[in-house]
Amino acid sequence: MDILRIAAFSDGETGGNPAGIVIGDALPAPERMQAVAADVGFSETAFAAPAEHGWRVRYFSPESEVPFCGHATIALGAALALRHGDGVFALTLNDAEITVEGRREGDTIAGALQSPPTRSAPADPELVTRALSLFGYEPDDLDPRIPPAIAEAGAIHLVLALAKRQRLAEMDYDLDAGRRLMNEAGLVTISLVHAETPQLFHARNPFASGGVLEDPATGAAAAALGGYLRDLGWPHGGAIHIVQGEDMGMRSLLKAEIPPEHGSSIRVSGTARLM
Fold first, then answer.
1. What's the CA gap between 268 and 265, in Å, rounded?
2. How many structural domains are present in the chain?
3. Which one of 112, 144, 178 terminates a domain?
């Protein structure tokens, strides 16, 4: 089995979130995909095979299947561009139909995905209390302009906005406790963000549900955040830029373009590099 390793949402020729990419004539059995993802050890490995109208795609973390993964989608777009030339590729996921674009630009590849539809709702106060306790945060650490929310764009995230960048940098938690919380609440990640300006965010994404302490770049969470900010009436000006992974030494850059139509797809873009 040929496994490509591509870092998505890179900062030029460094950073980004590594993903495994497997492209074959048919998808392996689910247990085989799960075993390969565990062996690769990245936060996600994407498996793709030709389908009637594009590509059938499934995503696996080291411990579980996830319905949608943004950085692995960008990495897949890069792999398809390398194999088939620049273009926009139609992807059929378990629960959605999306597209990914891949275009070669020197040593890196520009990628852009169109997310599944978005939605958001206020977070349950008990869940917020448990999440704050997990990270050792207090209610006063939260930014009142961006209330805690459940946000979706193909995967479910708890969004917690912190008022101070330093508190984001100090993020720490117990992996097993985080796994229990996320699995019980049906969360893929907890999206911790800080708004430096209305259009520039810093983010960290604990991914204990997949057995990963933290993702250095999370396209699905970026899309969900964009949808939530639109629902909130945040002055995003049509797009936000997200810096993620900086506190891990894996600085990653994401852009989320936010059209005005409520619930519509978010375009998340960045670059990818071969590893």
1. 9
2. 2
3. 112
Question: Average pLDDT in the 43-61 region?
Answer: 96
| Torsion angle, alpha carbons of 21, 22, 27, 32, to 10 | -90
Mean pLDDT of the chain: 96
pLDDT given for residue 224 in this prediction: 98
Burial of 211 (0-12, 13-18, 19+ CB in 10 A): middle
Q: Are residues 90 and 131 in the same domain?
A: no
- Characterise 138 by phi-psi region: left (phi > 0), alpha (psi -120 to 50), beta (else): beta
> Is residue 1 over pLDDT 90?
no
Q: Which residues contact 176 (CB under 8 A, 6 or more apart)?
A: 208
Is residue 105 located within the same domain as residue 150?
Answer: no
- Classified as helix, coil or strand, 176 is helix
Domain with 89, as residue range(s), is: 4-112
The DSSP result for 60-116, as a single string, is: E-SS-EES--HHHHHHHHHHHHHHH-SEEEEEE-SS-EEEEEEEEETTEEEEEEEPP
Phi and psi torsions of 146, nearest 5°: -130, 85
Q: What is the largest CA-CA distance in the chain?
A: 53
Please choose, from the candidates 249, 196, 254, 205, the residue with its C-alpha nearest in 3D space to the C-alpha of residue 226.
Answer: 254
Same domain, 97 and 188: no
| Single pTM value for the model | 0.94
CA-CA distances (angstroms) from residue 263 to 36, 69, 71, 90, 266? 34, 18, 21, 20, 9
Single residue among 58, 84, 112 that ends a domain in this structure: 112
Residue 133 lies in a domain: yes
